């Protein structure tokens, strides 16, 4: 390459934007460790009475216990993927989602995300004393929708949730809902918007079969709308129905990561040997 060619190549405009078929990373998890710090573990040591008596006796605070929940995991998720997270109880699935959402700081390693990840958990906070109606409006506004968008989507959200199938529950306070009804409404609100990265933690397992079918369909649509979906579930059939890729976590480490059918099959073989 002569000098002129070199200058031309440096000054040349950047190439065209990547073709849609190209894999665009949305979440990069690099050697991530998550450690929970539990203060005052042990009977009564965390209570106010215990604290006061320690202060009076000028004793130091009780020992700190650390739980190393995620022990150095790495993976990259891409636009258009639906990634299932499976593994036995306490293997680190919910912790991984919370860390991707930015709710837990990694003790080591890093998480990089493109866009704002939204974590939809069964316990995602809505206001229990407000009616379902009010919560739909609040939830939508909190996700950044305009009043006009909320008005447009409102009926779809209520219909999707199925809250009104057994009467006019949407105008009752959310505290009158069963846990399954609450979870359905939360999912319906959250799924009304396209997310860059949507993370769903077991929210689908509380619904009945019809609601599960609607949710699975909606997750497929969200994938098509080019977001990335993460789904934690103990239901292997839900994972098979919705996810093209699955990560199996065990003891805070990745045991397998690949096409859903292969990974779920491996997990099922492992669980059947254990029982
Ligand atoms: N707030 C917390 N404080 C301390 N330890 C925690 C906390 N939350 C979770 N852990 C611990 O972290 C580990 C991973 O928990 P996590 O909830 O991520 O697992 P999981 O795979 O989602 O489990 P499950 O399938 O039962 O929901 C477990 O050992 C758990 O005891």
Automatic annotation (TrEMBL):
<feature type="domain" description="ABC transporter">
    <location>
        <begin position="55"/>
        <end position="275"/>
    </location>
</feature>
<comment type="similarity">
    <text>Belongs to the ABC transporter superfamily.</text>
</comment>
<dbReference type="GO" id="GO:0016887">
    <property type="term" value="F:ATP hydrolysis activity"/>
</dbReference>
<feature type="region of interest" description="Disordered">
    <location>
        <begin position="1"/>
        <end position="22"/>
    </location>
</feature>
<dbReference type="InterPro" id="IPR003593">
    <property type="entry name" value="AAA+_ATPase"/>
</dbReference>
<keyword id="KW-0547">Nucleotide-binding</keyword>
<dbReference type="InterPro" id="IPR050683">
    <property type="entry name" value="Bact_Polysacc_Export_ATP-bd"/>
</dbReference>
<dbReference type="GO" id="GO:0016020">
    <property type="term" value="C:membrane"/>
</dbReference>
<keyword id="KW-0813">Transport</keyword>
<dbReference type="InterPro" id="IPR003439">
    <property type="entry name" value="ABC_transporter-like_ATP-bd"/>
</dbReference>
<dbReference type="GO" id="GO:0005524">
    <property type="term" value="F:ATP binding"/>
</dbReference>
<dbReference type="InterPro" id="IPR027417">
    <property type="entry name" value="P-loop_NTPase"/>
</dbReference>
<protein>
    <submittedName>
        <fullName>Teichoic acid transport system ATP-binding protein</fullName>
    </submittedName>
</protein>
<dbReference type="Pfam" id="PF00005">
    <property type="entry name" value="ABC_tran"/>
</dbReference>
<keyword id="KW-0067">ATP-binding</keyword>
<dbReference type="InterPro" id="IPR015860">
    <property type="entry name" value="ABC_transpr_TagH-like"/>
</dbReference>
<dbReference type="GO" id="GO:0140359">
    <property type="term" value="F:ABC-type transporter activity"/>
</dbReference>
């Amino acid at each position: 390459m002569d000098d002129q060619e070199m200058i031309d190549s440096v000054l040349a405009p950047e190439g065209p934007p990547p073709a849609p078929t190209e894999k665009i990373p949305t979440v990069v998890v690099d050697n991530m460790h998550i450690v929970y710090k539990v203060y005052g573990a042990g009977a009564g040591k965390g209570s106010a009475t215990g604290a006061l008596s320690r202060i009076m006796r000028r004793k130091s605070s009780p020992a700190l216990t650390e739980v190393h929940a995620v022990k150095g995991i790495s993976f990259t998720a891409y636009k258009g993927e639906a990634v299932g997270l499976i593994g036995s109880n306490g293997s680190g699935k919910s912790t991984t989602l919370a860390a991707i959402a930015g709710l837990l700081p990694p003790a080591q390693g890093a998480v990089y995300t493109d866009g704002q990840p939204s974590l939809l958990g069964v316990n995602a906070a809505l206001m229990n004393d407000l009616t379902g109606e009010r919560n739909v409006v609040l939830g939508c506004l909190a996700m950044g929708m305009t009043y006009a968008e909320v008005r447009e989507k409102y009926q779809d959200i209520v219909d999707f949730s199925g809250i009104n199938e057994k009467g006019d529950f949407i105008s009752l306070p959310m505290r009158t809902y069963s846990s399954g009804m609450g979870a359905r409404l939360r999912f319906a609100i959250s799924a009304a918007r396209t997310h860059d990265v949507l993370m769903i933690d077991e929210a689908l397992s509380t619904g009945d079969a019809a609601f599960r079918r609607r949710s699975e369909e909606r997750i497929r649509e969200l994938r098509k709308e080019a977001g990335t979906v993460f789904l934690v579930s103990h239901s292997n059939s839900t994972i098979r129905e919705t996810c093209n890729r699955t990560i199996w976590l065990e003891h805070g480490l990745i045991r397998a990561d690949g096409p859903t059918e292969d990974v779920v099959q491996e997990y099922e073989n492992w669980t059947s040997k254990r029982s």
